[in-house]
Design a protein that fits this description.
This protein has about 400 residues and is of the alpha+beta class. It has 17 helices and nine strands.
Length: about 400
């Protein structure tokens, strides 16, 4: 049976009601290593308060959901004596999450990762948060988070671009929101709503747009480095698809036996998890169709279309295309800032400058016209300039010899 420490100030309701009302709890009594029980005397409601050491030199406080037996008889559930509160405090501090212990930030991320996996989301996004999360935050209960400490953490991600910071903080906010939905005691949602507010100017376009000659040089360098990677690169450059879409292409998605070959490109998981994956036709060149058909061989229709040289599928989560792409960029004498996504950006701009309606460009690239207008507005303006120039009024005075007198009028 657990030891039951005594406290002359907290054992009886008579002694407790003599204490002065204040925000700071009265008379913390150590009931187990690292666990203490105190009492908060409030104006409208009194409470048992648990203080638990976090193992890092600090501690966290939490009110027990049950009230003291100050004005009601104890029932062991909603109303507790000092002795019953000791048992409840130990259960809160050291029990399982399901039995009442407040979930920590690390546990909230693990729960969110499982939720993403069940709904078909990208679990790799959680790894990004874990990589940048300090132990002091990871071990802290979600219910004890404050807006100031979360803002300090967000502002400390100075090495990232604003858009990357926002993507990272959005994952942590989603994990905390999920924890709050499962635990009514977590009522501090303002902490991450305010502390992890999105940074401004995160949508400022910094996309690298390549010329057709540069894209061809990249494809050639990729094939020279690894034929399997060359095929992945050529498919990306031709379709403008994201890596997460390319790795989901199946042999059955290739429609090469037709005059206008195409692939049925699966939609990405960008956006909310659980998003329905749809396949939409995207045109490809006959030459690429032939190479893809040769690579598919006689494999089953549900098998991955694009494979690495070792016969394994490419992975969007592990980003195993980055190193070979960096080698191809260096071989093509391009700037190191060129990433695999430059192929997608270049494909979109190429279609815009070709006069393809934005709605068609958006559908083919699995995005929206709003995002295209926001991200590629400068290139849209360049195209609009060329189109509008055809209809400009020429206000220059015509030469005297070119003046034509209209019939019925005198000059």
């Amino acid at each position: 049976m657990a030891r039951r420490p005594r406290s002359s100030k907290l054992e009886t309701r008579t002694d407790r009601l003599k204490l002065a009302p204040r925000q700071k709890p009265h008379h913390f009594t150590t009931i187990s290593p690292g666990i203490a029980l105190g009492y908060r005397r409030g104006k409208d409601r009194n409470a048992w308060v648990v203080r638990v050491a976090d193992g890092k030199g600090g501690n966290w406080l939490k009110n027990l959901p049950s009230i003291p037996d100050d004005h009601e008889d104890a029932n062991g559930e909603s109303v507790l004596t000092f002795w019953q509160a000791q048992d409840a405090a130990r259960k809160l501090a050291r029990g399982t999450v399901e039995s009442g212990r407040p979930v920590s930030v690390a546990e909230a991320l693990a729960d969110y990762e499982r939720d993403l996996r069940a709904r078909g989301g990208l679990t790799g996004n959680v790894s990004r948060v874990r990589h940048h999360l300090p132990p002091s935050l990871a071990t802290k209960p979600v219910a004890m988070l404050t807006s100031r400490e979360l803002q300090r953490w967000r502002d400390g991600l100075v090495e990232m671009k604003p858009a990357t910071v926002n993507r990272t903080t959005h994952i942590l906010k989603a994990a905390c929101n999920l924890a709050a939905r499962h635990d009514a005691r977590i009522t501090n949602a303002n902490a991450w709503r305010i502390g992890l507010a999105s940074l401004r100017d995160s949508h400022r376009a910094r996309n690298v747009i390549l010329t057709d000659e540069q894209v061809r040089a990249l494809i050639e360098a990729a094939y020279a480095d690894d034929p399997a990677f060359g095929l992945l690169t050529e498919t990306a450059a031709t379709t403008g698809a994201r890596p997460s879409q390319l790795v989901k292409l199946e042999v059955g998605d290739l429609q090469a036996d037709r005059g206008d070959p195409r692939v049925m490109m699966p939609s990405s998981r960008k956006g909310h998890a659980g998003k329905r994956v749809e396949r939409k036709p995207v045109p490809i060149t006959p030459a690429l169709a032939l190479r893809l058909r040769q690579a598919a061989g006689g494999r089953d229709a549900s098998a991955p279309l694009l494979l690495r040289a070792d016969g394994k599928p490419w992975s969007a989560t592990s980003a195993d295309h980055r190193l070979p792409f960096a080698r191809a960029v260096a071989c093509a004498a391009l700037k190191p800032s060129v990433t695999f996504y430059a192929l997608r950006h270049s494909s979109i701009v190429r279609q815009i400058l070709a006069g393809t309606p934005l709605r068609v460009v958006a559908v083919a690239h699995d995005t929206s016209t709003m995002m295209i207008e926001r991200t590629y507005s400068r290139h849209i303006s360049d195209h609009a300039d060329a189109v509008l120039r055809k209809g400009l009024l020429d206000t220059a005075q015509p030469a005297a010899g070119n003046v034509v007198t209209l019939s019925g009028r005198r000059s």
